[in-house]
Amino acid sequence: MRNPHNDTLSSDRIGSKPAGTSAKEAQPERKCVLTGRHDARGELVRLAISPTGDVLPDALARAPGRGAWIGVGETELATAIANGKLRGALARAFKGASLSIPADLPERTRAALTRALTDRLGIELRAGNMLLGTEKIAQGARAGAVKWLAHASDAGTDGPNKLAQAWRVGEEAEGTGLKGIILPLDRAALSVALGRDNVVHLALVDAAAAQRVAVPLRRLLHFLGSEQDTADVASAACEDIDTKGI
Predict the structure, then answer these.
(1) What is the pLDDT of residues 131-157, one digit of tens each?
(2) How many other CB atoms are found less than 10 A from the CB of residue 206?
(3) pLDDT confidence tier of residue 11, bands split at 50, 70 and 90
(4) Residue 141: HSE in the Cβ half-sphere, 13 Å Cα cutoff
(5) For residues 216 and 209, what is the distance between their CA atoms, to the nearest angstrom?
(6) Which of 90, 97, 177, 180 has the smallest C-beta neighbourhood within 10 Å, fewest atoms?
(7) For residue 236, which of 171, 175, 188, 189 has the smallest C-alpha distance?
């Protein structure tokens, strides 16, 4: 039986835009207080003020009250703290409120974004939306059940290539660039996050779950300055995912 996703397959799924409105273009934009650039909400990190006046990362962008958005990476954020640019930008954004900016805000931000991603992966595993293990993923991929495929940062090349091939077979996409994404987490971090031994490969079998994972993953990759196309993280999934509202 033909997979309905095939009609929208691109020639290089991981690196090209889906047909029509892209995931990035469908999102509301926010302005970075440091650079003045506007970008998709899912690319930027929200900063919020705690009740004690500490500026902290709001990794899920859900904290109440006024927030400020930054679209720079970890290194640029550290520089902006050191030269006082962040304090000035936040003073304007928070309209003169008393602020305390932790010196380790870049590290706290990276940790918060990483935790948001691992927490979401754990939720999807417990919800029954995830496949683990090379054989289970390969079987699901060949059956056309896989909607999103990813690998640990230390996965090597053999396993990811074999699973990508199985996925292309299941999607009737042989000869295309359809493949999974390399996560900014090694197998040790994934194993701890998911409570399983030696997690190297993982797949999602639900398109909505893939969308939910794409949100924290995109923010983390952007903050880390990953060379992977953060606007197309959802392209590691089937292209019919609705990315509106991320």
Answers:
(1) 999 999 999 999 999 999 999 999 999
(2) 17
(3) very low
(4) 30
(5) 12
(6) 97
(7) 171
Do 206 and 147 touch, CB atoms closer than 8 A? yes
Judge contact between 153 and 183, C-beta under 8 A: yes
Residue pLDDT, tens place only, 54-112 = 999 999 999 998 899 999 999 999 999 999 999 999 999 999 788 999 999 999 999 99
C-alpha 186: how far from chain center: 15
| Count of beta carbons in the 10 Å neighbourhood of residue 130 | 23
> For residue 122, what are its two tokens?
């754990």
